[in-house]
Protein 1
Amino acid sequence: MVVFTDSLDYADQATGSVVGNWGEPVAHQRAGIRQLCDAIYGTLAIRESILAAESGWDYLFLVESASQSHYDLLIELSRREIRLPDGVLCLAGSGERFHGFKGREWSAPAGNIYLAVHLAPHQPFEHVATCFTVLAAVSVLDAVDGIPGLEGTAQIKWVNDILIDGAKVAGVLAYTQSEAAAITDVVLGIGLNVATIPSVAPTPFVPRVGALQAVVPDPANCSISLVFRRLVDALGRNYRALREGGQAALLDRYRQRSLVIGREIALCSEDSGTNPDVLAVGRVEALSDDLELMMEGHDRHFSIGRVVLDPEH
């Protein structure tokens, strides 16, 4: 995998095992990669090297402090019909103007993982609106499960938050672009708190935030580089499974680790502030194949909204 960086110190922290020497960038001359280098680094001096990585990842862009969201940047380039290759990773050490689901503010202090991924499958998928959200969420679970002492602790709060012991440690985003029946571009966004607990005001939807190193028995098993490697390995493995028809198995794993199935919730409107506008209250019986909430006492399925767990009546 070709690696670019604007900071050798951050590159060492993020990867831990760069192979070969850092040199002048050469691979950025390739189609699509030059535009991405320009968009990410601007006029900054960058270096290039090679990182041993699992098959499927061709490029890694490392930025110590990003001035914009790489998730948004990859979407913008895709919409401009700049053909980015399959298997592009963009990792930031911290950043500004980052956001979560539905554009909600996302705090991005140093010490965590802020990953944007570009995929170019060029094939059709069932349940396109949700299958890549499932891919990203399950891959985060796999990465956390690979940390000694945290196996099985992470769960999914509908639809895209990852919690441990009631505290949000990660969130995922997914965007797709199609041509005819085929998905041509996919952009995933993953924010995962590893070492730093962001300062975030509590809300009914996110009462607490946390970080992996705050709950792991031995923080030495939970460095940025180790978690990053586990995460990209899981993403690559699950992406291959998805492309080979493994969507049902990924969805089953999402359901198995759901925090809402069998639980009493309040579903509120997307624009709810500190005083939530409640759309429905009840026990979640199941999730549909499109991740719709199927709630006891309600004939309709719910595909949008924000969840409050165990609401007070």
Note: The chain has a mean pLDDT of 92.
Protein 2
Amino acid sequence: MWKYLLLLTLVACGCASNEPTPVLASAKPHAECLVCKANADLACVDVEVEKDTPSFEYNGTTYYFCSTECRDKFAKEPSKYVKK
């Protein structure tokens, strides 16, 4: 049970950044799809970052997405999705 609480705590703390960070040492890095987050599509917000995960660099930060469609929407208007 404590492992799940630790996992939930780590996930909650990791939501402040879109940079991929490992949740646990054995887990793959995760990020948030900002397009899905803006559209309240909670099923797709969490993105497991792998070498072929759609990404886009904006203002020196790499953002990851659940699909190429979301990446393309972000690329057209990144300021709409990035908090200032």
Note: The chain is about 30% helix and 20% strand.
Protein 3
Amino acid sequence: MFVGAGVSMSAGLPGWHEVVASLARHLNLPDDSLSTDALLRVPQYYRNRLGAHALQNKLEGLIPAVSPSEAHRLSAKLPCDLFYTTNFDELLERSLEERRAEKFPVIVSEEEAQFHSDRSGLQVRKIHGSITRPGTLVITREDFATVRKERPVLVDTLRSHLRSNSFLFIGYSLNDPDFAAIYDEVFLAMGEFHQKHFIALPEASDLEREDLRGQGLEPINILDWDPKRESLSAGLEGFLTDLVAQTDDLAHISRFFGPLGRRHSVPIVMSSQAHPAEKYIYVAECDLVVAAETERILDQLGCTGSRIADHRAMQETEQLLSGDLIIICSPFGNEFAAMLFEKAAEESDHQFASVAFVEKGAGRAIVGPNGAEFFAGDPVMADGATRKTEHALIARYPNPWSPGKSIFMFAGLYAVGTHAVGEFMRSADNFREFPDAEASIEAVLTIEFTEHDPYDYKYEVAGLSVIET
């Protein structure tokens, strides 16, 4: 990502025009002197007249103490580990520190650029300096003219990164002097890019779009993300929100586990013992696989999970049903799950699932609305060569006994299905398959497997079917 002044302006900081206007007033220059060229000339005049130290102090006084904007926070959520910025403030770094657990270098000087010449892990590169680092700011006409000579490694690394990565530019306008400097110094000198880049802008003319595309920059009209088509900050937030929703692992997970609040402890009800009819695979191990993945996900969401055996849960039913709840294993192997389905069937006002788990011939099935059936034969009958099919339910329901709370269920028809749910949960990208839904989500995971020995099943996920409810 390449982050410009517009992102910091959404946090309440002044834009470059406002900064230069303040410098001009201090120099008693008329307001009509602020042409595009003056955006670089006026800071130069200020430094010439009053000195570099006075210019640094003036800039510090013009940058108030503010918190990162929503655009900063959304940017930090994106699956990106290389950030460039022309901003002097430290709001981008702060938003990344709040979001990411890892430490990362903030590269400002030429010496730091030399030390971090190899890209490794999360980095923030501030090519025009930092307000807290006197002497690093690129702000005057002279600074812009000499930056290539004074910071060759920083600029050459930028050029290399532009060749080898796709960048998204946000917070820039076409008359922004920061963007113009990058455009002139780097883009035009490179000629044809090896990568395609994107720039989020307000509406641009056809000529401007043609010019950008000629340099490998695809313009994105951020006003398309503002219903009123008038607020750049609202448009940028809307665009970044959609981008995060499509790319961030935690965003995918939150679509399913979203109702759970942070700093929340959630009971995880598991089977107490191996089901006697499923002796061919260690059932408790399957439940533990799902429980471990569930706890890992809860930790990402800022929650914790507490495992409870189903025989104990039967004694604490009223308490458990008063909050959020996670159930592992189907009614065939989990006493508490079986009780819950029976309780809901008896209390007509408390139906929560549209599916049923039924014994059917030589196997079992998950039966959905309108008779949709997902059948799996008994894995004991697998002959070691024929591929078999198993199914598991992954569901989220509003808790009918406690409004505002949710019941989550991860349940295979047999143990191999429950185990496969745990494998499925290891990749956050799998949660991309779930629909946006504020209420119920029911999906059947289809698993194909072959028996190699009674305790080791080799399987693969064949698909996920969302049940319309």
Note: The chain has 18 helices and 17 strands.
